[in-house]
Write a structure and sequence with these properties.
The protein has 212 residues and is an alpha+beta fold. It has one domain. Helices cover 30% and strands 27% of the residues. The strands form three sheets. Strands 2, 3, 6, 7, 8, 9, 10, 11 and 13 form a nine-stranded mixed β-sheet that branches. A two-stranded antiparallel sheet has the order 1-12. β4 and β5 form a beta hairpin. The longest helix has 14 residues. The protein is globular and about 45 Å long. 23% of the residues are buried.
Amino acid sequence: MFRIGDATKNIRWDTYRDLAARPGIAWTIPLSLGDSHRGFRVLGTTQEYFEHLRFAGGRRLELAFGRRFEAPGETVLGASVAAVLGYELGRDIIVAHGSGEVAFSLHRDQPFRVVGILAPTGTPADRTIHVTLEGLDALHAEANAPARDPLASARQGARRHAESHVHEERDEHDEHASESAGREITAFLVGLESRRAALSVTRCVARGPERP
C-alpha cells in the first residue's frame, strides 16, 4: 500500500484468481512490485486499480493529463513522479529491477511510454509509476531469458513456421491461461460485498485456495 520495503513472499496467480472468485468478494486489485525508476516504485496492476481504489473519504483517482494505460508498453505516472522528474506525455522511460536509488539492472530494450499523469492525491499513488501486469511479465521474461544463439533461434523459427498450421486455432481460455502461466503478484486489495462477509473471507484466505 505504501510502497515501502520489499515483499517477503509472492502470491501465485492461480491462488489469487481462486480467492478472487470466492463468495462475498465484490472486487479485487492485483498489485505487483519489484522494479523502480530513478527511486520511484513501479507498480504492475490492472484497470481495477483505477475503477475501485478510493482515498480521502471515497474519492477516485483522476487523470490530470492523458489516459489510462491500455497496452503492455504504456505507463501512467503519479503526480509527484511527473513533477520531480519533469516528465510529460509521450516520454519513454526505462525501469530497473529492484527498488533502490541506484539501478544496476536496466531493462533498456523495453521502455514504457507515458500515456497518462494522475492528478495529485496526497497518497503513495503520487510517487508511483503504474504499468500493466502484462508489461511486467514481458519485462521479466526477457530479463530471465537465456542468451540467444542466432543459429538456434533461426532453426526454432523455421520449425515453428512449419508446424504453425497445426496450431491455427487456439481455445480462448487456454490462451489466457498461457499468458499468465507462472505469474506471481506481490499482493491484492479486496472489496467485500458487505461488512458481514469479512469473517468468512478472512477464514477463506487463511485456509488458502481449494484443491481438487
